[in-house]
Amino acid sequence: MSSQTREHQHVLVATMKRAAAALRDAEIEFMLGGGLAAWARGGPPTDHDVDFYLREEDAERALMALAAAGMRTERPPEEWLFKAYDGPVLVDLVFCPAGGPIGNEHFERATQMEVGAQTVLVAAIDDVLVAKLLALSEQEPNFQAVIELARSLREQFDWGAVRARSGDSPFARAFFTLVEGLGIVESESSLRA
Predict the structure, then answer these.
(1) What is the pLDDT of residue 70?
(2) Does 118 lie in the same domain as 145?
(3) 101-113: per-residue pLDDT in tens?
(4) Final residue of a structural domain among 123, 149, 181
(5) In terms of Cα–Cα distance, which of 122, 28, 26 is closest to 69?
(6) Which of these, 134, 182, 153, lies nearest to 35 by C-alpha position?
(7) Could you give the CA distance from residue 40 to residue 32 in angstroms, rounded to a whole number?
(8) Do 112 and 58 lie in a common domain?
(9) Separation of alpha carbons 40 and 105, rounded Å
């Protein structure tokens, strides 16, 4: 990891800790999601943003809690998330990612983990990958992040569940063709044999 990547990761974790503390103080149930959730489980470092998954009914209060913590907030036109900025660092409050709203089942699959010396609930890695796969589109068909995630954490996925939950997406089907061809995941036919 380059020193620039390491420094940016440190900044993201510091923002994650501030935002998590604000949400916890406001008694809002949340999970760490996205690239930081993958990193917490041993995946590659992320240089993107901090994602928290939460229920839609908690999203407005969560946004107010981050505003009270000094973050600049935004309600973008997309109807599945709110945004907050801790200086230049983006915090996404995701309540309805591709694949459907965050519900009790997501929280049941999550794991308490220590991230940056702070204990937080971390989204299940299958949920993170399914959301990323279902977000791929004709406008954004970049497979780099999902292949890197699959390669680095391949032993942690329930590949059958990821396949079943994302199988309606042609981009997810293409992803499985790629990772099978690269030898990252066994083909579905060899698993049945």
Answers:
(1) 98
(2) no
(3) 999 999 999 999 9
(4) 123
(5) 26
(6) 153
(7) 9
(8) yes
(9) 20
Structural domain span for residue 183: 125-193
d(CA 181, CA 60) in angstroms, rounded, equals 44
Report how far Cα 45 is from the mean position of its chain's Cα atoms. Answer: 13
- Measuring CA to CA, which residue among 132, 158, 126 is closest to residue 145? 132
pTM for the model: 0.92
Q: Which amino acid is at 106?
A: H
Pair (25, 106) in one structural domain:
yes
The last residue of one of the domains, among 106, 123, 140, is 123
Is residue 116 within 8 Å of 17, Cβ to Cβ? Answer: yes
User: How many other CB atoms are there within 10 angstroms of residue 147's CB atom?
Assistant: 15
4-8, 74-78, 143-147: least confidently modelled range: 4-8
Instruction: Report the alpha-carbon distance of residue 163 to residue 155 in Å, rounded.
Output: 15
Those residues whose C-beta lies under 8 Å from the C-beta of residue 143, and which sit 6 or more positions away, are 136, 174, 175, 178
Residue type for position 58? D
- Number of domain units in the chain: 2
